[in-house]
Specification:
Layout (H helix, E strand, L loop, with lengths): L1 E6 L2 H12 L7 E5 L6 H11 L14 E5 L4 E6 L6 H11 L5 E6 L13 E7 L5 E6 L12
Parallel strand pairs: 2-5, 2-6, 4-5
Antiparallel strand pairs: 1-7, 3-4, 6-7
The chain binds adenosine-5'-diphosphate and magnesium ion.
Length: 150
């Protein structure tokens, strides 16, 4: 399944991701792709809220990963941007992928592609202007339930 949106502000991007966040079951893996400042972390903010987490979502660039607790699973948010040694954290990521009680979301995942499963959700954000983004969301049939109700 594939869906494409154009959002006019961060709130609209968060609305889309909140819709998906509300449909997560646990065990999903999400790859976030965009240039710097594209809106990956903004997307995560809506996703976490949609999954009923009250934890604050910020860029994990300097901490590499952050955890947001929801009533039914944990969201582990990774950011591999300019990480000098991705191998170390990649190990941690590998242990989490496939755990049904954990949703894994990754920014700048090019160095850990081999760890991500085929049935991941891919979110590609392209800046059209300062405030407009094209948000392309793709996933295999296994995760079609995430696209319901749009
Ligand atoms: P990334 O994690 O991809 O580096 P962030 O989510 O941290 O990006 O930052 C995106 C920036 O772009 C934020 O300052 C946000 O307010 C701004 N922005 C402007 N318009 C949009 C939009 N339509 N969708 C998402 N973010 C937007
Ligand atoms: Mg970010």
């Amino acid at each position: 399944m594939q869906l494409k949106f154009v959002t006019k502000n961060p709130e609209e991007t968060e609305l889309i991701s909140a819709h998906i966040g509300a449909r997560l079951k646990g065990g999903e893996v999400i790859e976030l792709i965009s240039d710097l400042g594209g809106g990956k972390t903004t997307f995560m903010r809506g996703l976490s809220r949609g999954a009923k987490s009250e934890d604050v979502v910020t860029s994990p660039t300097f901490t590499v990963s952050k955890v947001y607790i929801t009533p039914t699973f944990e969201i582990h948010h990774f950011d591999f941007y300019r990480l000098p040694d991705p191998g170390l954290i990649a190990h941690e990521l590998e242990d989490l992928v496939g755990d049904p009680a954990i949703v894994v979301a990754v920014e700048w995942a090019q160095d850990v592609q081999h760890i991500l499963p085929d049935n991941k959700l891919s979110v590609r954000i392209s800046a059209i202007s300062d405030t407009e983004r094209e948000v392309l969301i793709e996933g295999s049939a296994v995760i079609d339930y995430l696209f319901e109700g749009f």
